[in-house]
Design a protein that fits this description.
The complex is a heterodimer.
Chain A: E1 6-7, H1 11-16, E2 20-24, E3 27-32, H2 36-45, E4 47-51, E5 58-61, H3 65-72, E6 85-91, E7 97-107, E8 110-114, H4 120-130, E9 137-140, E10 145-151, H5 155-160, H6 168-172, E11 179-184, E12 187-192, E13 201-207, H7 208-222, E14 227-229, H8 232-241, H9 277-286, E15 290-297, E16 308-311, E17 314-324, E18 331-338, E19 347-352, E20 355-362
Helix pairs in contact in A: 2-8
Chain B: E1 9-10, E2 15-17, E3 25-30, H1 32-38, E4 41-45, E5 52-53, E6 58-64, E7 68-72, E8 77-82, H2 85-88, H3 92-95, E9 104-108, H4 120-127
The chains are: A alpha+beta, B alpha+beta.
């Protein structure tokens, strides 16, 4: 606990904006600036500005880059087109999840792999170790790269205010899970249409020395569009409503992709071996004992992480994340429950500090934006 | 820099208690420090009038999107009323924790027991 946590390049901006801070993955990150509910609602209705510089960035380059990532990750990364991104997992030999990550293919022989903050070092180390037999260079750029996200229905309009007229179409036509290089506020950045909120939005990668200029430009351009700076508290409630897993809650070394509902992310059909293949083939054949489900609270009290899930007084699972949903007005939770009880409509209970309250299994996500 | 009014009494669980009126009734709420730590309150579950409580009983709870806190009986007595305005607007607990955001009123078994609680100065030491 005495380990000092790191500051992002935007720490002074957050302080000036009155943020309260929390430790997350070894970083002092803004928890909220004013009110996490206001920030949550701003992202759903307008836009929010997030500092995500605690996330890792690992560049994988070289002639074998695609083949290497096919071996190191569970997906078929060699198959994605230049300019596209893919959600994938990095697993251990026994099929446990080291991290979930997004990989951007920036060139035929160049990928940017983005792990979670708390796992960035472990992922970079695993990639470096797995690279031994491949002609690739693995470069952990986390400490010199900042990541800023603009999320919400007004995100595109805000970006359009900051790119040169000649690049407006590049922004407008950028597809979900795609990335391109554009000039924002005079800075050359990698712009990705990705996010973790369930809304349209962008993630912008820049060197640390440009982060403050970019942050201030986005805040200035975004304010007339209803953008507010947004902290990790609302990021968590937004991703929960969107049914997105959080490493450490829904995902861990002890969880396999099939239990987490991420079976389709595992490309068992791809050629050649990959780390975890044999174990994952066995796990797929056996089927998971427990499955990740969405739970809707039928009362007003919310389930929280680690609360037991019950049926008729017997423990049949455990909550991984839960909160009163700001957008929906009722409690939502994700939980691992016995596979036989994972069908939507199943009536279960959650032990809320000694009292069993009714919850129902519902499909994920809880919240889906209107197209 | 949380606000700790000098005229109130406090508990270690971050609740405040007003001075008893002539009927031995006190108001109870959570402190500014507690509301700030909890975040935006979205739901307060409180006991109905007539509920008899003993000091340190769990009476209810206050939930935010990110957390939940139990509400404890600061002293023994009977619930006289709960703040029904919180049903429609639980954010009063955040915006005015010592005023419109009060939780409940208790008729104390022993009005003198208020003197056993923490003073503002003592509570300030705890949260400082």
């Amino acid at each position: 606990m005495s380990e000092t946590s790191s500051h992002t390049a935007l720490y002074d901006q957050h302080r000036a904006l009155g943020a309260s801070f929390t430790d997350f993955g070894g970083w002092q990150m803004p928890l909220k600036y004013s009110s996490e509910l206001l920030e949550h609602k701003a992202v759903r209705a307008a836009a929010g500005l997030f500092d995500l510089s605690h996330m890792g960035e690992v560049e994988v380059s070289g002639p074998d880059a695609g083949a290497f990532l096919d071996y190191a990750l569970v997906g078929r990364l060699s198959a994605i087109a230049v300019g596209k991104a893919k959600y994938s997992l990095i697993c251990t030999d026994d099929g446990g999840i080291i991290d979930d990550l997004i990989s951007y293919r920036r060139a035929e022989d160049n990928y940017l792999v983005v792990p979670n903050a708390g796992n960035a070092k472990a992922v970079a180390a695993a990639l470096a170790e797995r690279a031994a037999d491949f002609d690739v260079t693995v470069d952990d750029q986390s400490s010199r790269t900042s990541l800023i996200a603009v999320q919400g229905p007004h995100a595109e309009q805000i970006l359009l205010d900051l790119v040169p007229a000649g690049q407006a179409d590049d922004v407008r036509s950028l597809k979900y899970y795609a990335a391109t290089e554009v000039t924002v506020a005079g800075l050359d950045i990698l712009l990705a249409r990705t996010g973790y909120t369930g809304e349209d939005g962008f993630e912008l990668y820049v060197p640390n020395e440009s982060a403050a200029v970019l942050w201030n430009a986005l805040l200035r351009a975004g304010t007339p569009h209803g953008l507010v700076p947004a902290g990790l508290a609302c990021r968590d409630s937004l991703r929960l409503e969107a049914g997105m897993p959080l490493y450490g809650n829904e995902l861990s070394l002890g969880v396999d992709p099939y239990a987490a509902g991420l079976g389709p992310v595992v490309a068992l059909s791809k050629e050649g071996d990959f780390v975890g293949r044999a174990a994952l083939e066995r796990k797929k054949a056996a089927g998971p004992a427990r499955k990740l489900v969405g739970l809707q609270g039928l009362g007003r009290r919310a389930a929280r992480s680690h609360y037991p899930v019950l049926q008729d007084g017997q423990t049949v699972g455990e909550v991984t994340s839960g909160a009163p949903s700001p957008s929906l007005g009722y409690p939502v939770a994700m939980a691992y429950v016995d596979a036989a009880l994972a069908e939507p409509g199943t009536e279960l209970q959650v032990d809320l500090r000694g009292k069993a309250e009714p919850f129902r299994v519902v499909p994920l996500p809880f919240y889906k934006r209107a197209k | 820099m949380s606000n700790i009014p000098a005229e109130l009494s406090y508990t270690a669980e971050h609740e405040w208690v007003s001075a008893p009126n002539s009927d031995g009734v006190v108001r109870v709420g959570i402190t500014d420090f507690a509301q700030d730590a909890l975040g935006d309150v979205v739901y307060a579950q409180l006991p109905e009038a007539g509920t008899k409580v003993s000091g340190a009983d769990v009476l209810g709870e206050v939930e935010s999107t990110k957390s939940v806190s139990d509400i404890y009986a600061p002293l023994s007595g009977e619930v006289v009323s709960r703040n029904e305005a919180l049903d429609a607007d639980p954010s009063l607990i955040n915006s005015d924790p010592y005023g419109e955001g009060w939780l409940l009123e208790l008729r104390l078994e022993d009005a003198a027991a208020v003197s056993s609680l923490l003073s503002a100065a003592e509570y300030e030491q705890q949260v400082g």
